User: Which sequence fits this backbone?
């Protein structure tokens, strides 16, 4: 009977004691098998059991398997298609601070349900342009100008007035094995032929930061061992390095503090910012978002997590 039992994402969420949005994320990342019936997503009970068994080990710790691009079942999912978003509010981005922001929005804006779309910055801006989401976040660095976000917002949301609001600064750098056995120091080490890396997926800010620097170095990514091996979070690339699966990976400093067996080499402070359409700026809940981001309560909670520079949080960076 277990082979024939079909579950909705809500039923899976109840079994695993997680939110339905987390179920969508697990499916999108390829960690939980799912399939579409029309426009609905369904999961077989046997696949839920397989997922639970895979994440167990004798130490009781969670195992982190690298999520390779080919593992994704729904790589083109912009938002939870199984959800009714007619009265919802979709925020694109992958940082945990967006989970906190979503909670504040639902608390302060009665009747608003928030949904998370865990796609990278490039696809998030595209989804905002296409009207699939209400809010996008971005940490995209342009190597030609040395600026964050503004050049990409101009290109990916053409002809639509937008507002960029600063969320936080984060430090990006290399994850290397503890002790840094290859003596890696910076971007120039990507030219070495004795280096193996593990990469992030196309479209995320970290991948674009890497590719922009490779362009400046006149290095073809395909010449780097492991360049085409893609994972879909900072945590998975960091854990791959910790297990000896690569000599380096690019990610943020905050994640490096969560994974044993790696060192962090700081390279560049990045700007993580929120993008909305200007026409919505003074409507609810958009107006509330700005008030929340600027509030002492919100900043205090982020300070407690650590890893964020909140000096400019809530500032309007540009109106394009």
Assistant:
């Amino acid at each position: 009977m277990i082979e024939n039992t079909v579950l909705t994402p809500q039923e899976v969420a109840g079994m695993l004691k997680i939110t339905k949005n987390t179920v969508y994320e697990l499916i999108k990342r390829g960690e939980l098998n799912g399939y579409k019936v029309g426009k609905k997503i369904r999961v077989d009970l046997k696949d839920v059991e397989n997922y639970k068994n895979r994440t167990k080990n004798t130490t009781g710790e969670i195992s982190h398997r690298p999520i390779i691009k080919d593992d994704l079942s729904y790589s083109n999912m912009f938002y939870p298609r199984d959800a009714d978003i007619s009265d919802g509010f979709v925020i694109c981005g992958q940082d945990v601070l967006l989970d906190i922001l979503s909670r504040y929005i639902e608390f302060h804006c009665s009747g608003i349900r928030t949904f998370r779309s865990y796609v990278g910055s490039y696809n998030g801006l595209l989804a905002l342009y296409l009207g699939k989401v209400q809010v996008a976040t971005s940490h995209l660095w342009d190597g030609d100008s040395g600026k964050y976000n503004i050049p990409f917002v101009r290109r990916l949301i053409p002809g639509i007035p937008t507002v960029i609001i600063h969320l936080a600064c984060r430090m990006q750098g290399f994850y290397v094995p503890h002790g840094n056995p290859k003596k890696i120091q910076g971007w120039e080490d990507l030219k070495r032929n004795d280096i193996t890396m593990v990469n992030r997926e196309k479209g995320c800010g970290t991948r674009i930061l890497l590719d922009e620097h490779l362009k400046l170095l006149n290095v073809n990514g395909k010449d780097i061992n492991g360049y085409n091996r893609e994972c879909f979070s900072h945590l998975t690339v960091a854990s791959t390095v910790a297990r000896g699966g690569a000599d380096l990976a690019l990610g943020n400093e905050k994640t490096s503090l969560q994974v044993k067996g790696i060192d962090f080499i700081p390279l560049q402070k990045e700007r993580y910012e929120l993008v909305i359409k200007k026409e919505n700026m003074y409507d609810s809940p958009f107006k509330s978002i700005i008030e929340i981001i600027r509030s002492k309560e919100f900043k205090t909670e982020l300070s407690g997590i650590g890893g964020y520079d909140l000096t400019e949080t809530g500032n309007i960076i540009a109106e394009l």
User: Anything to note?
Assistant: The first helix runs from residue 9 to 16. The chain has eleven helices and 14 strands.
